[in-house]
Specification:
The complex is a heterodimer of chains A (487) and B (559). Chain A is mainly α. Chain A has 20 helices and two strands. Chain A has one domain. In chain A, 77% of the residues lie in helices and 1% in strands. The longest helix of chain A has 32 residues. Chain A is globular. By secondary structure, chain B is mainly alpha-helical. Chain B has a domain of 269 residues. The chains are: A mainly alpha (487), B mainly alpha (559).
Chain lengths: 487, 559
């Protein structure tokens, strides 16, 4: 590779570079600025960096290139995923400004860590090679470990960080071992070369290869919190600061799915019978078990953690469907995450809104009478809950319908039926939030104060949740284009 | 393919969208009202509903009768990449349901001036949103759009019962919500199977569009027999729970009892019709073979619903519950008429949907008015009200007689057509295999008798005799506003009863088209059709032809 090539490739990396530079500058700024300078300026600076990166990301739409000798891809698919990640990071920063002030833990590193973690996930979204994928994965994970334990005086937060750290490392080790086995069989870490190796006659069998693939699935399963590898997740989610939980409930999962979508249906297509079977079983138990756990929770935050697990299960249905019809299957997963991330970030945002001094606002009881205390907050929460449940006119309904469509198309009727039954069961716990908000009287009369930053975040998320339900045409078009880029 | 007349050719502007979305726009405006200004909020909501009704009425005046065509059709891209479009239109089957929705919307809003005093703004927003979604169900010609409206209707209704309801409101609201989901999610699978069936067909026949949710296109696509069988049940669950049919009716009495009056009126008047409308719009034209295979089951369930509803209504002590169970019985007639699968039966079913909306709507309004005065619905608390409330009693009697099917009122017309259809079911559809038409006619007549029984008994206990309870001595008769809510319903009850031609003239062409296209003799004779084997005997065919003529004669009497 010559120098000129290196320079042009670097240009394609501009969004990532901007995020990295913003993070570094923020770190230095936080270090040299006196205590009196408000940390909210740092947040705004990070936001600015994210917006700039998003603009450059948009400019990359329509390209289809492999850069740095096939380490990373610059294509429509990567752009869509990077936008999801950047928007999530932006919204989380907006939410955090309020939360950190209330919890009295205003420190500059917080924003820096969010930026670095976002950077790692962006690399994952673009990775077409296990090396670059793993690089991104670890950068994300390490930043997240620290973020989980960010509230140092809180025991739960510390527990959360340590749990996440130990189990995360364990998962990484399994993942890496799986990768090394696959490397041993295929002779390459590059997805397209693995594809070629597997599609050679007789290339898709062998104990070592299958072991490697199973370990890969286990590793991803840990990172995406698929049942039965989900045990770490509810505790980690509950202990972590709420905005961080919002961040983790989207970011790492979305990034892992980006890798999975590049690897399984494309590179490992020759092995589709095997991984299709495993993922089908995983999807079924993930949705069902997570759903039943979510039914019993007393904390909304924990309920959302479990519901998040079951949503990963729904996305897995789409992945399973790619074994038969790749276009519809991939499209369903992309649309599912587009919808899921807006509703989920929004729901956590409302919890942040309820969080006041000495009251975390996480319990179901804290939502009592919200419809009277703050009609707008209650309305927004209702929109998010409906979207997660899959009721029109929110985006969630189309996402669910399309995942079921993928399953029906792929003749995985039993999986679709399991999904349907669980969607009905999930109505109970999502509705419980609405019942609390509208059908009980408030325990305290104080009205909530919307800070501008939080209000902006919530309104944007609610707007897109509704917009995707009513005018979903452009989003489906987006998904379709990114699928075409993949295939 | 079914002809469709664009709205730009007939009236020049998208009138249907206006009718459907005006309440929604009104609700958005209401968001910015000061919630203290109750009078203004009520007037505004009522104004929106009235304007909406007037526009719907204008639409009816430019509606062409005597043609099965879809009218005022609008078609725009919605999700082009998966073949979903914003495709709406009305034919004879749906036009009156849209109109009824608009009318009942205005009436219910007017009826809540005394009943709803807390969170008025939120209530009006819910009612207006409900209006939009219900009308959306009746005008959608795209499966995905239909499903969107069908589900979106849940939330406002859920909130109306859950927030403004009585006693066990949360239980009833949640029960309704989850029950409906149990139906609609399987329904989605069925709709998706239809959708992918088109996809496969399009690939095999090299059609230009590979994906389509468009109903009018899908009507012409054959579906494999075995596939039809399970799709039929998938759709059936969704619609049957909404109707509700026996044995999935248990959410209805709870929802009715705990809903505020306005909620009950809309629930009985419109929401239940979404289920029976779904049968006519989806099951019948899309799955003729599935319907042929299973219609005896549906008829049986309808028969059970009729008798069961009557039986349970007899024993009720609560007036509202009584009307709720009578609803189950009456919806049984509608499904029976629809699944008689002949012109008279389906036309009667569609007409009866409107009749039931009017008469049961009026009954719920009346019970609600009494509740507002005395805060109890127990029959035993009343007696001899006729002397105290002569006007009220008159309106009650009219609604009651309409519900009973007394000649001269609307219920009679619908029920007699359903009976005609049911009686002929054996000779029309399955020849020598199925001859239960007579039995079901007897069941239906028994149901009518029973209905007369419990309603007259109710009337006797509540209105006749002496005033036994001293609390009833100071009751005031209807106010001007209350009379205003009842008059339009009463006028229509008499109109349909005395001169139903304008209604039947518009409904019948669409029904005839459906029957001729999917359930006529030639269709049955097609070798692809599973029930073709039943037509071995030529003598039977001759007999069939005679009956068909006979039926036409009957029908022309109705015209």
């Amino acid at each position: 590779m010559n120098t000129a090539q290196l320079w042009t490739d670097t240009l394609y990396l501009l969004p990532e570079i901007i995020i990295a530079l913003t993070g570094l500058l923020a770190l230095v700024w936080d270090f040299i600025s006196p205590e009196s300078v408000k940390k909210s300026r740092l947040a705004l600076f990070s936001l600015f960096g994210i917006m700039l990166a998003a603009v450059f990301c948009f400019m990359q739409a329509g390209l289809d290139k492999q850069i740095f000798s096939n380490l990373l891809a610059v294509d429509y698919f990567a752009v869509v995923y990077k936008i999801i990640l950047l928007v999530t990071a932006g919204m989380v920063i907006l939410m955090s400004m309020n939360y950190l002030k209330v919890q009295d833990t205003q420190r500059g590193e917080y924003y820096v860590l969010i930026l670095f973690s976002t950077l790692g996930m962006m690399v994952m979204a673009a990775a077409t090679n296990f090396i670059s994928m793993y690089l991104g994965l670890e950068l994300t994970a390490i930043s997240c470990y620290i973020l989980c334990g960010f509230m140092i005086k809180d025991k739960a937060s510390n527990e959360s960080a340590i749990k996440y750290f130990i189990l995360g490392l364990f998962a990484s080790a399994i993942l890496v071992y799986g990768i090394s086995l696959i490397y041993g069989v295929c002779g390459s870490l590059n997805f397209s070369q693995i594809q070629q190796a597997l599609s050679r006659p007789g290339g898709n069998s062998g104990v070592v290869l299958l072991t490697g693939m199973v370990m890969l699935i286990v590793g991803f399963g840990f990172k995406m919190a698929v049942v039965p590898f989900h045990m770490w997740m509810p505790d980690v989610y509950e202990g972590a600061p709420t905005p961080v939980t919002a961040f983790m409930s989207i970011g790492p999962k979305v990034a892992c799915f980006a890798v999975a979508l590049r690897f399984f249906p494309i590179a490992a297509y020759a092995l589709r019978v095997q991984w299709g079977f495993i993922f089908a079983i995983l999807a079924a138990i993930t949705i069902t078990l997570a759903n039943f756990h979510a039914l019993r929770q007393e904390s909304v935050k924990r309920m959302l953690a479990y519901s998040g697990i079951s949503h990963v299960g729904y996305a897995l249905i789409g992945l399973v469907a790619t074994t038969v019809d790749r276009q519809i299957g991939l499209m369903s997963v992309i649309v599912y995450f587009l919808v899921y991330f807006t509703a989920n970030v929004g729901a956590f945002g409302v919890i942040v809104l309820l969080c006041q001094k000495g009251r975390m606002g996480e319990k179901f009881d804290d939502f009592k009478g919200l419809g009277k205390r703050s009609p707008f907050a209650a309305m927004l929460m209702t929109i998010f809950m409906l979207s997660l449940l899959g009721i029109p006119p929110t985006g969630g309904f189309l996402a669910k319908v399309w995942v079921f469509a993928a399953a029906v198309k792929a003749d995985y009727m039993w999986l679709a039926v399991i999904g349907v039954i669980n969607a009905i069961i999930s109505a109970y716990y999502y509705l419980r939030v609405t019942v609390m908000m509208y059908m009980h009287d408030p325990e305290e009369q104080s009205s909530l104060s919307f800070t501008p930053a939080l209000a902006v975040a919530l309104y944007i998320m609610a707007f897109f949740t509704l917009y995707m339900g009513v005018f979903p045409g452009s989003f489906f078009e987006l998904a379709k284009k990114s699928v075409i880029a993949l295939l | 393919m079914l002809e469709s007349i664009s709205c730009y050719d007939s009236i020049g502007y998208p009138i249907l969208s206006l009718v459907v979305f005006l309440p929604c726009i009104g609700a958005l405006f209401l968001l910015f009202f000061n919630s203290e200004w109750i009078g203004g909020i009520r007037r505004f909501a009522f104004g929106v509903a009235i304007v909406d009704f007037l526009i719907a009425l204008m639409m009816l005046f430019s509606f062409k009768s005597g043609t099965p065509a879809m009218q005022f059709v609008e078609k725009l891209d919605w999700i082009p990449s998966i073949g979903a479009s914003y495709h709406i239109g009305v034919d004879g089957i749906s036009v009156f349901l849209v109109l009824l929705t608009a009318l009942l919307g205005a009436v219910t809003i007017l009826s809540t001036y005394r009943a709803i005093t807390t969170q008025v703004k939120e209530f009006m927003i819910c009612i207006l949103l409900l209006q939009t979604t219900m009308m959306g169900v009746f005008v959608s010609l795209d499966m995905l759009l239909f499903y969107l409206f069908f589900e979106a209707q849940l939330l406002p209704m859920y909130l109306i019962i859950g927030i403004w309801g009585s006693d066990r409101r949360i239980y009833s609201a949640t029960k309704m919500f989850i029950y409906t989901l149990v139906g609609t999610f399987p329904m989605v699978l069925g709709l998706l199977a239809v959708y992918f069936n088109y996809h496969d067909y399009a690939i095999a026949n090299k059609l230009p569009e590979l994906f389509s949710f468009d109903l009018l296109t899908l009507y012409n696509i054959p579906i494999e027999y075995t596939k039809q069988l399970w799709i039929f049940w998938a759709l059936f669950i969704g619609f049957a729970i909404k109707v509700p049919m026996f044995p999935v009716h248990t959410w209805l009495p709870d929802a009715h009892t705990d809903a505020p009056t306005a909620g009950s009126v809309v629930l009985a008047g419109i929401l239940l019709k979404m289920g029976s409308y779904g049968f006519v719009r989806f099951s019948l034209p899309l799955l003729p073979d599935g319907v042929h295979r299973f219609f005896p089951v549906v008829l049986m369930l309808s028969g059970i619903a009729i008798l069961y509803g009557v039986w349970v209504a007899m024993t009720q002590k609560d007036m509202k519950k009584l009307v709720a169970y009578s609803s189950i019985s009456h919806m049984g007639y509608i499904t029976m008429g629809i699944f008689a699968l002949n012109s008279a039966g389906i036309t009667g079913g569609v007409l009866q949907m409107i009749n039931h909306g009017l008469s049961t709507g009026a009954l719920f309004l009346l019970v609600g008015m009494l509740y507002e005065r005395r805060h109890t619905r127990m029959i035993s608390e009343y007696g001899g009200l006729f002397k105290q409330l002569p006007l009220y009693t008159t309106f009650f009697a009219i609604a009651m007689f309409s519900s009973m099917g007394v000649p001269g009122l609307n219920g009679f017309v619908g029920e007699i057509m359903i009976l005609m259809g049911t009686y002929n079911v054996s000779s029309i559809v399955a020849m020598n295999v199925y001859k239960a038409g007579e039995i079901y006619t007897v069941v239906a007549v028994l149901g009518i008798l029973g209905c007369a029984g419990y309603l007259l008994w109710l009337f006797q206990r509540v209105f006749l005799g002496k005033v036994t309870n001293p609390k009833n001595k100071e009751l005031k008769d209807l106010s001007g506003r209350e009379i205003l809510t009842l008059v339009p319903l009463t006028v229509l009850i008499f109109w349909i009863g005395l001169y139903p031609t304008p209604f039947i003239k518009r409904i019948k062409p669409s029904v005839d088209y459906l029957v001729k296209k999917k359930y006529s003799l030639e269709k049955l004779n097609q070798p692809a059709n599973a029930s073709a084997g039943l037509l071995e005997n030529k003598g039977n065919i001759v007999k069939f032809a005679n009956t068909q003529e006979g039926l036409n004669e009957h029908s022309s009497v109705m015209d």
